[in-house]
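User: Run a structure prediction on this.
Assistant: Running it now.
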Amino acid sequence: MENLSQWDFKSEFTGSEAAALILGIDPVEIGSAQDVNRAVIDRMELSYYSARYRLIRNLTPSTEGDYLPPKADQLRSLRMTEFDDPDNENDVSEWLGAVQSDFPYQKFTRIELSRWLAAIGVKSIYRFELEQTGVSDKPQGNWPWGEHHTKTLGYLESAAKKWWVNYDPSDVSTAPLNATVIKWLQTEFGISKTKANSIASMLRADGLPTGPHT
Protein backbone atom coordinates (compact mmCIF):
# COMPACT_ATOMS: atom_id res chain seq x y z
CA MET A 1 0.00 0.00 0.00
CA GLU A 2 1.23 3.47 -0.86
CA ASN A 3 1.95 6.06 1.81
CA LEU A 4 -1.10 8.32 1.62
CA SER A 5 -0.52 10.21 4.88
CA GLN A 6 -0.06 13.53 3.05
CA TRP A 7 -3.78 13.38 2.22
CA ASP A 8 -4.62 13.45 5.93
CA PHE A 9 -4.20 17.23 5.77
CA LYS A 10 -7.13 17.66 3.37
CA SER A 11 -10.64 18.14 4.73
CA GLU A 12 -12.53 17.66 1.47
CA PHE A 13 -11.93 15.79 -1.78
CA THR A 14 -13.02 15.82 -5.40
CA GLY A 15 -14.76 12.72 -6.69
CA SER A 16 -11.68 11.51 -8.57
CA GLU A 17 -9.42 12.08 -5.53
CA ALA A 18 -11.78 10.16 -3.25
CA ALA A 19 -12.14 7.30 -5.75
CA ALA A 20 -8.38 6.86 -6.01
CA LEU A 21 -7.90 6.96 -2.23
CA ILE A 22 -10.66 4.39 -1.72
CA LEU A 23 -8.54 2.03 -3.84
CA GLY A 24 -5.36 2.97 -1.94
CA ILE A 25 -3.88 4.87 -4.89
CA ASP A 26 -2.29 8.30 -4.67
CA PRO A 27 -4.55 10.55 -6.80
CA VAL A 28 -1.48 12.42 -8.07
CA GLU A 29 -0.13 9.23 -9.63
CA ILE A 30 -3.33 8.29 -11.47
CA GLY A 31 -3.04 11.21 -13.88
CA SER A 32 -5.15 10.59 -16.94
CA ALA A 33 -5.57 6.87 -16.28
CA GLN A 34 -9.10 7.33 -14.97
CA ASP A 35 -10.10 3.82 -16.08
CA VAL A 36 -8.25 2.52 -13.00
CA ASN A 37 -10.92 3.91 -10.67
CA ARG A 38 -13.79 4.16 -13.17
CA ALA A 39 -15.97 1.67 -11.29
CA VAL A 40 -15.67 3.68 -8.07
CA ILE A 41 -16.39 6.98 -9.82
CA ASP A 42 -19.44 5.46 -11.54
CA ARG A 43 -20.85 4.41 -8.14
CA MET A 44 -20.08 7.81 -6.63
CA GLU A 45 -21.77 9.59 -9.54
CA LEU A 46 -24.88 7.42 -9.18
CA SER A 47 -25.13 8.20 -5.47
CA TYR A 48 -24.41 11.91 -5.99
CA TYR A 49 -27.02 12.34 -8.73
CA SER A 50 -29.52 10.50 -6.51
CA ALA A 51 -28.90 13.11 -3.83
CA ARG A 52 -29.25 15.90 -6.41
CA TYR A 53 -32.53 14.41 -7.63
CA ARG A 54 -33.86 14.39 -4.07
CA LEU A 55 -32.90 18.06 -3.79
CA ILE A 56 -34.86 18.80 -6.97
CA ARG A 57 -37.91 16.88 -5.71
CA ASN A 58 -37.80 18.82 -2.43
CA LEU A 59 -38.35 22.02 -4.42
CA THR A 60 -41.36 20.74 -6.36
CA PRO A 61 -44.79 19.62 -5.14
CA SER A 62 -44.84 15.88 -4.51
CA THR A 63 -47.47 13.64 -6.04
CA GLU A 64 -48.62 10.18 -5.07
CA GLY A 65 -46.35 7.53 -6.50
CA ASP A 66 -43.27 9.77 -6.70
CA TYR A 67 -40.10 7.72 -6.37
CA LEU A 68 -37.23 8.92 -4.24
CA PRO A 69 -34.02 6.86 -4.13
CA PRO A 70 -32.95 5.54 -0.70
CA LYS A 71 -31.50 8.40 1.33
CA ALA A 72 -28.84 6.32 3.10
CA ASP A 73 -26.78 5.52 0.01
CA GLN A 74 -26.95 9.02 -1.46
CA LEU A 75 -23.71 11.02 -1.54
CA ARG A 76 -24.12 14.69 -0.64
CA SER A 77 -21.48 17.18 -1.72
CA LEU A 78 -20.13 20.00 0.43
CA ARG A 79 -22.12 22.51 -1.64
CA MET A 80 -25.36 20.65 -0.96
CA THR A 81 -25.02 21.07 2.80
CA GLU A 82 -25.27 24.83 2.38
CA PHE A 83 -28.83 24.36 1.16
CA ASP A 84 -30.01 22.79 4.42
CA ASP A 85 -30.96 26.34 5.38
CA PRO A 86 -34.49 27.08 4.03
CA ASP A 87 -33.44 30.68 3.36
CA ASN A 88 -31.22 29.42 0.54
CA GLU A 89 -34.08 28.09 -1.62
CA ASN A 90 -33.47 30.62 -4.40
CA ASP A 91 -29.76 29.80 -4.42
CA VAL A 92 -30.37 26.06 -4.71
CA SER A 93 -32.69 26.53 -7.70
CA GLU A 94 -30.06 28.60 -9.49
CA TRP A 95 -27.31 26.11 -8.61
CA LEU A 96 -29.27 23.09 -9.81
CA GLY A 97 -29.71 24.73 -13.20
CA ALA A 98 -26.00 25.45 -13.61
CA VAL A 99 -23.15 23.24 -14.76
CA GLN A 100 -21.55 23.74 -11.32
CA SER A 101 -24.01 21.20 -9.92
CA ASP A 102 -22.52 18.43 -12.08
CA PHE A 103 -20.44 15.74 -10.36
CA PRO A 104 -16.95 16.82 -11.57
CA TYR A 105 -17.36 20.18 -9.80
CA GLN A 106 -18.20 18.70 -6.40
CA LYS A 107 -16.15 18.19 -3.25
CA PHE A 108 -16.99 15.78 -0.46
CA THR A 109 -16.12 15.92 3.23
CA ARG A 110 -14.42 13.16 5.19
CA ILE A 111 -17.51 12.60 7.33
CA GLU A 112 -19.82 12.25 4.32
CA LEU A 113 -17.47 9.89 2.48
CA SER A 114 -17.12 7.71 5.58
CA ARG A 115 -20.90 7.64 6.10
CA TRP A 116 -21.56 6.82 2.44
CA LEU A 117 -19.01 3.99 2.33
CA ALA A 118 -20.57 2.44 5.44
CA ALA A 119 -24.06 2.81 3.94
CA ILE A 120 -23.14 0.92 0.77
CA GLY A 121 -21.05 -1.64 2.65
CA VAL A 122 -17.73 -0.85 1.00
CA LYS A 123 -14.38 -0.61 2.80
CA SER A 124 -11.88 2.05 1.81
CA ILE A 125 -8.17 1.32 1.90
CA TYR A 126 -7.58 4.95 2.87
CA ARG A 127 -9.23 5.96 6.15
CA PHE A 128 -11.25 9.14 5.60
CA GLU A 129 -12.53 9.44 9.16
CA LEU A 130 -9.37 10.28 11.07
CA GLU A 131 -9.28 9.22 14.71
CA GLN A 132 -8.37 12.64 16.08
CA THR A 133 -11.25 14.46 14.38
CA GLY A 134 -13.80 11.80 13.57
CA VAL A 135 -17.18 11.74 15.30
CA SER A 136 -18.35 8.25 16.16
CA ASP A 137 -21.93 7.09 15.74
CA LYS A 138 -21.49 4.85 18.79
CA PRO A 139 -21.85 6.03 22.40
CA GLN A 140 -18.48 6.83 23.91
CA GLY A 141 -19.55 6.60 27.55
CA ASN A 142 -17.70 9.78 28.50
CA TRP A 143 -20.66 12.06 29.24
CA PRO A 144 -21.74 13.04 32.77
CA TRP A 145 -25.25 11.67 32.09
CA GLY A 146 -24.06 8.28 30.85
CA GLU A 147 -23.67 6.76 27.39
CA HIS A 148 -26.27 8.70 25.40
CA HIS A 149 -24.41 10.15 22.40
CA THR A 150 -25.36 11.88 19.15
CA LYS A 151 -23.35 13.19 16.23
CA THR A 152 -24.19 16.76 17.23
CA LEU A 153 -22.77 16.14 20.71
CA GLY A 154 -19.65 14.83 19.00
CA TYR A 155 -19.39 18.00 16.90
CA LEU A 156 -19.80 20.05 20.09
CA GLU A 157 -17.04 18.11 21.86
CA SER A 158 -14.64 18.34 18.90
CA ALA A 159 -15.17 22.10 18.56
CA ALA A 160 -14.70 22.66 22.29
CA LYS A 161 -11.41 20.74 22.29
CA LYS A 162 -10.22 22.51 19.15
CA TRP A 163 -11.10 26.11 20.01
CA TRP A 164 -11.88 26.59 23.73
CA VAL A 165 -9.27 24.60 25.70
CA ASN A 166 -6.91 27.60 25.87
CA TYR A 167 -9.57 30.18 26.71
CA ASP A 168 -8.69 32.44 29.67
CA PRO A 169 -11.73 34.33 31.07
CA SER A 170 -9.40 37.15 32.16
CA ASP A 171 -8.16 37.66 28.59
CA VAL A 172 -10.90 37.99 25.95
CA SER A 173 -8.32 37.83 23.17
CA THR A 174 -7.96 34.09 23.87
CA ALA A 175 -11.59 33.48 22.87
CA PRO A 176 -12.10 32.26 19.30
CA LEU A 177 -14.36 34.22 16.99
CA ASN A 178 -17.75 32.65 16.35
CA ALA A 179 -17.18 33.00 12.59
CA THR A 180 -13.96 31.00 12.88
CA VAL A 181 -15.63 28.16 14.80
CA ILE A 182 -18.60 28.11 12.40
CA LYS A 183 -16.38 27.90 9.32
CA TRP A 184 -14.29 25.11 10.90
CA LEU A 185 -17.38 23.07 11.78
CA GLN A 186 -18.75 23.39 8.24
CA THR A 187 -15.43 22.45 6.65
CA GLU A 188 -14.52 19.66 9.07
CA PHE A 189 -17.87 17.90 9.31
CA GLY A 190 -19.87 19.13 6.30
CA ILE A 191 -22.78 20.39 8.41
CA SER A 192 -25.08 23.28 7.54
CA LYS A 193 -24.31 26.86 8.54
CA THR A 194 -27.43 26.89 10.72
CA LYS A 195 -26.29 23.89 12.76
CA ALA A 196 -22.69 25.17 12.95
CA ASN A 197 -23.97 28.54 14.20
CA SER A 198 -26.03 26.83 16.93
CA ILE A 199 -23.05 24.78 18.12
CA ALA A 200 -20.73 27.81 18.12
CA SER A 201 -23.31 29.81 20.10
CA MET A 202 -23.61 27.05 22.73
CA LEU A 203 -19.83 27.05 23.18
CA ARG A 204 -19.49 30.82 23.43
CA ALA A 205 -18.41 31.89 26.92
CA ASP A 206 -21.05 33.60 29.07
CA GLY A 207 -20.64 37.35 29.29
CA LEU A 208 -18.15 37.52 26.43
CA PRO A 209 -18.43 40.97 24.79
CA THR A 210 -19.46 41.09 21.15
CA GLY A 211 -17.21 42.43 18.41
CA PRO A 212 -13.56 41.73 17.51
CA HIS A 213 -11.33 40.46 20.31
CA THR A 214 -8.24 42.58 20.82
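The first helix runs from residue 15 to 22.
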